[in-house]
Design brief:
The complex is a heterodimer.
Chain A (H helix, E strand, L loop, with lengths): L1 H30 L8 H37 L10 H16 L8 H39 L6 H41 L2 H6 L20 H33 L2 H16 L2 H22 L10 H25 L3 H9 L4 H30 L2 H6 L17 H10 L7 H35 L1
Chain B lengths: L26 H43 L4 E10 H4 L5 H4 L4 H7 L2 H13 L11 H11 L7 E7 L2 H7 L5 H13 L2 E5 L2 H4 L12 H32 L4 H13 L4 H13 L2 E3 L2 E3 L8 H25 L3 H9 L4 H29 L3 H5 L20 H9 L5 H31 L4
Antiparallel strand pairs in B: 1-2, 1-3, 4-5
Helix pairs in contact in B: 1-18, 5-6, 7-8, 10-13, 10-15, 10-17, 12-13, 13-15, 14-15, 15-18, 17-18
The chains are: A mainly alpha, B mainly alpha.
């Protein structure tokens, strides 16, 4: 809560600075015959910026640096001499001391950590106090500096606008930072994984059973091929068998046949399918669809049908994807020039002949791109498979058998109680990296196809 | 269309072609036409079937949820006669007005007293009829009106999960028999369960509520909005209005478009590695930056996830503002910043807000990234702040769906109904805003 109080304090100082500067600028206005270059409010903004921004920047830097300073201070304590020299164990003990210091009523298992709790608390309090004082001092210094510059001839407006521009640039850089952050964090953890498990074992191994990992040869039970196959089978085959015909035919019917009033009502209803949270689909799949699929399998003669079949998850996922395929198909059919459609109709073709021989071939690149995007969405879908698919990694072509996916395994690997550095948790990051790269490639290809196709008709 | 696609018109006098006109009345031609029309009707029917089946699936899903879930909003009460003076329960009256009332009543053996009252009223094993938490209701009744300690009263207490399920036709044979006996005695009643809306998670399906998860969702959404909205709108303004066309801005564009399509679970991995992992910088070891399973971490993760959605929607809204507005403002001497913040942004705001609400609705229904960053703990007390352990509505649904007890099925569906109502309200608001403020320039 201390950080929040500090933020409020700095914001309050900024407000005071704004009011003061505005009042001063107002006096200039009334007193002299010279005209102000900028409006009083702009002078206020200038001072407020100088008050708030340096202080906030300092707080950000300080909160990144101070844990290290606290650690140095704690290591100076006599009791720290008993700490093991080995980095990893020492950090674990220090983390324990930190936990004891910050939580009421927590106790440490290790006596050294217990001894270090008090110095940790002291050091934290000291550095927090120093940081707070320095931030407030900076806020005052910034305000004072800016206030001395408020003069009738001072160009506050252009300064403020330059600052605003910088803010806009920083905001748009966050997207790049996020992408970089995703890529680097996945890559970093995956590299650690590949130090323990050979990359060839992971990519081409056909045996996946992370529950029992042989410490001598962890790669033997971490072969991801069954996961890749399961993901492809559920997301790219079963789901698409549902989504492509339904999505495409809905789009065709709504754009070519339906009366405007029907289209006006049905389109939002179909889009609602995309708005239902995936956890609801997952629950529906597990509760209603999966038992029905199992009954169907039993009646077809599979005595040991799984109640967590690939078919149940794939079917529901396909339904979820319908509006996605439908709206992409809708867009690309609408982009076909009307002249082509009219020409075909004028030659005496029926509407269905026009659609299947003229519109669809012309719109095909767009439809294919839409399907690629839909596949990328389906293989990244998590909750449906977590709730309805099984954890058993099989390579099978039988939709009534169980199959597992990459996303399901990521959740399973990370929600168990295990250390952050074990091959098990690191494997989740390697799977995540694979998923990220594949969806990225699908998207890039799809966007390129769409772009090229759009140019063809413009 | 380029010129070359136009049909070549004959330049000289056309050669007369010797070809008889098609005779449409022949049997073969009539058959062919019939076949083509039949195919047309079939095609049209397939289209209609696709639309209808998709809508039917949605209807089926909603009906299943409502059919399963409506009972979750109600509970079965058992009218239990309690004779306080005879029960031998001793409580200081003065204590009941103080903060120690809960402790005093628990210490006085209220729980056992309620159980034995049930055993006397409904025969041996009678305490099985009541929920484990039934005595808490008696405690609250005494606190509200201490004078009942002097009389014999009949009080409605929540029935156990077994009885509740048996009444819905889903219980065991023994429970069905017990429920039938109670029904004959006329002590059972069903009523709206307000506790479901202001209690939190529990191990007993009769006593669970969604308030804790709902509050967690609200806190998470607040963090998400406070970060994603300003950052998203500001970067949209920069990209649309000021960005020079160069390699850097292209890179920003490409990363925003790709981020919009990255699977949500990847953002969970990012949150786990960056906010909750430990890493070293300049030789300093950093512990987890933020507390695990807090609304703050969840909100940050979701903010990164929906930011591209907001950026793309905002850019489209800004693009839709006609250039004449900008030219007019520039013409009377506004600076580029003033043009955007005084004129373009207010006009684009309805579009921006619509996109933001749709993005927020997506964040509200999102589960997978929050599972990864640990917002799946069993949390009994609603979070008090942004750094308290919290769970959110979709994760609560996921956790309940994993429970074995049958009583959780209807609670899960009831929670889903609540979630869907929120999402529907948000989407409705977005559509309303779009229709009300949509401007045709």
């Amino acid at each position: 809560m201390n950080a929040f109080a500090l933020l409020f304090l700095v914001a309050g100082l900024g407000l005071i600075g704004w009011l003061t500067a505005r009042a001063r600028a107002n006096r200039f206005d009334r007193g002299g015959a010279r005209r102000l270059h900028s409006l009083p409010g702009q002078h206020g903004m200038y001072v407020a910026m100088w008050t708030v921004l340096p202080a906030l920047l300092f707080v950000a830097v300080w909160s990144a640096v101070s844990p290290g300073l606290v650690k140095e201070a704690v290591l100076q304590h006599p009791a720290a001499a008993q700490l093991p020299q080995f980095d990893f164990e020492r950090d674990a003990l220090l983390a324990e001391a930190r936990r004891v210091a910050n939580e009421d009523g927590a106790a440490a298992f290790d006596p050294v950590a217990q001894q270090l709790a008090a110095p940790t608390r002291d050091a934290q309090a000291r550095y927090r106090w120093m940081g707070t004082a320095a931030a407030i001092l900076l806020a005052f210094a910034g305000a004072a500096f800016a206030l001395t510059r408020v003069r009738a001839s001072f160009k506050a407006r252009s300064r403020v606008e330059r600052g605003t521009m910088l803010l806009l640039l920083v905001a748009s850089l966050i997207a790049i930072l996020t992408t970089l952050g995703i890529f680097l964090s996945l890559l970093w953890e995956s590299l650690r994984f590949f130090q323990q498990v050979p990359i060839t074992d992971f990519l081409f191994g056909t045996h996946w059973s992370p529950q029992v990992i042989d410490a001598g040869d962890p790669g033997k039970s971490l072969g991801a091929v069954p996961l890749f196959w399961g993901t492809f089978f559920i997301g790219a085959i079963i789901a698409m068998i549902v989504a492509i015909p339904f999505g495409l035919m809905s789009a065709i019917y709504l754009t070519q046949y339906a009366a405007p009033s029907v289209r006006k009502w049905m389109k939002p209803i179909l889009e609602m399918l995309a708005g239902v949270p995936t956890v609801v689909y997952g629950y529906f799949a597990a509760l209603t669809v999966a038992p029905a699929v199992r009954d169907l399998a039993v009646s077809l003669g599979y005595t040991y049908a799984s109640s967590e079949s690939a078919l149940a998850a794939g079917l529901v996922m396909g339904v979820m994807i319908i509006p996605f395929v439908s709206s992409m198909a809708d867009d690309s059919i609408a982009a076909v020039p009307t002249a082509m459609r009219d020409g075909s109709l004028a030659m005496g073709a029926t509407t269905s002949e026009t659609i299947s021989r003229v519109l669809i071939p012309a719109a095909l690149p767009g439809v294919v791109a839409g399907v690629l995007l839909a596949v990328s969405r389906a293989i990244g879908e998590t909750m449906i498979v977590v709730m309805a698919a099984s954890g058993a990694a099989n390579i099978t072509l039988n939709p009534f058998e169980s199959a597992t996916t990459v996303t399901k395994q990521i959740v399973d690997l990370l929600t168990g109680e295990s250390e952050f550095d074990s091959p098990k948790t690191l494997a989740a990051f390697a799977l995540g990296l694979t998923l990220f790269v594949i969806t990225l490639l699908l998207n890039i290809v799809a966007l390129r196809v769409v772009k090229k196709y759009r140019e063809a008709y413009e | 269309m380029s010129k070359s696609l136009l049909p070549q018109l004959p330049t000289g006098p056309a050669e007369p072609t010797e070809r008889a006109p098609t005779d449409w009345t022949t049997v073969a031609m009539q058959k062919r036409i019939r076949r083509r029309y039949a195919r047309e009707r079939r095609f049209r029917f397939f289209g209609l079937a696709a639309v209808t089946l998709s809508a039917a699936f949605l209807a089926f899903l909603l009906i299943t949820m409502v059919a399963n879930g409506w009972r979750g909003f109600t509970r079965t009460d058992v009218a239990l006669p309690i004779d306080f003076p005879a029960s031998g329960i001793v409580v200081e009256r003065a204590q009941l007005a103080t903060r120690g009332a809960d402790l005093a009543l628990a210490g006085a053996g209220l729980e056992n007293m309620v159980k034995s009252a049930a055993a006397t009223a409904f025969g041996p094993g009678g305490e099985e009829v009541l929920s484990e938490h039934a005595w808490l209701r008696v405690r609250d009744a005494i606190k509200a009106d201490p004078s009942i300690l002097d009389r014999k009263i009949t009080i409605d207490l929540p029935a156990s999960t077994e009885i509740d399920q048996a009444l819905g036709g889903k219980g065991t044979a023994a429970a069905e028999a017990a429920a039938a006996k109670l029904q004959q005695a006329g002590v059972l009643s069903r009523r709206f369960n307000a506790d479901f809306l202001h209690e939190s998670d529990s191990t007993d399906p009769v006593a669970v509520g969604i308030w804790g998860a709902l509050k967690g969702s609200l806190l998470t959404m607040a963090v998400t909005f406070l970060i994603a909205f300003p950052v998203g709108v500001l970067s949209a303004i920069y990209l649309e209005e000021y960005a020079p066309k160069n390699r850097w801005t292209d890179l920003i564009e490409v990363s925003i478009n790709n981020l919009a399509a990255v699977p949500s679970i990847i953002f969970g991995l990012l949150g786990l590695a960056v906010f909750l992992g430990s890493w070293s910088l300049f030789g300093y070891q950093f512990g987890p930056l933020l507390p695990r399973s807090a609304a703050l971490v969840g909100g940050l993760t979701l903010a990164l996830m929906i930011m591209p959605v907001i950026v793309i929607a905002s850019r489209n809204a800004i693009k839709a503002v006609p250039p004449s507005i900008r030219d007019a403002a520039l013409g009377i001497g506004a600076s580029p910043i003033q043009v955007v913040f005084h004129h373009v942004l207010p006009l684009a705001m309805p579009g921006i807000l619509t996109g933001t609400i749709i993005g927020m609705a997506r964040a509200l229904g999102e589960t997978a990234p929050l599972l990864l960053i640990g917002m799946r703990a069993f949390i009994v007390t609603p979070p008090g702040g942004f750094t308290d352990p919290a769970t959110v509505l979709p994760v609560q649904i996921f956790l309940w769906s994993d429970e074995v007890s049958r009583g959780f099925i209807e609670k899960t569906s009831a929670a889903i109904i609540v979630l869907l109502v929120f999402l529907l309200a948000m989407n409705g608001l977005a559509i309303y805003l779009r229709n009300k403020f949509e401007t045709r320039w």
